[in-house]
Amino acid sequence: MISGTVTNDIYTIIKFHENNDVNRINKIISRTFGKFAVIDKNWNPTNPKSVPHSEEFWIVKIKMEIRAGQKEGCFVVEPIERIDLEDINPLIPGMYTEKDVENIRFLIPNEQYRNKYLIASTDLKKTINKTSVIVLLRHDDYPEKELPN
Question: How far apart are CA 65 and CA 45, in angstroms?
Fold first, then answer.
């Protein structure tokens, strides 16, 4: 049974986009994981001027997944810190190990890439036949969640 908790409390990097849906509730969304991510409605930014904008990359904490493991549904995230594009590197084969949990493929950067900001390219994600693809953030400033076997 899919619990929806395997992704809770995971830190990762996503790119935000403006939601062009005319009936939108969420102005800013992401499709980085392969399905939508929205900002937690209970998120209270420490600085009101420091909120995500379209085309920005952010470290986020995944709060929950709605309809876990299914194409429909979404992730609910809490923005933590904006990251400049110049500080982000593409994740390429050989730089990570893979772990499948439920219907999610986790890409776990190798130890030598600790404290680097990495994202998977769209082309890489297209080669993975899972509902979602998440690159774990391995950084000394953020706790790592141990994934179940």
Answer: 21
Question: Which tokens go with 131?
Answer: 């509902």
**Same domain membership, residue 105 and residue 76:** no
Residue type, 26: N
Which residue bears the tokens 């995500």? 52
Structural domain includes residue 94:
yes
C-alpha to C-alpha distance for 28 and 51, rounded to whole angstroms: 10
CATH at residue 73: 2.40.50
pLDDT attached to residue 142: 92
pLDDT tens-digit map of 97-141: 999 988 899 999 999 999 999 999 888 888 888 888 999 999 999
In Å, how far are 45, 73, 110 from 118, measured between CA atoms? 24, 25, 11
Same domain, 22 and 73: yes
Of 87-91, 117-121, 144-148, the range with the lowest mean pLDDT is 144-148
Residue with tokens 């141990």: 146
Residue 106 belongs to some domain of the structure: yes
What confidence score (pLDDT) does residue 3 get?
A: 44
35: nearest Cα among 78, 76, 2: 76
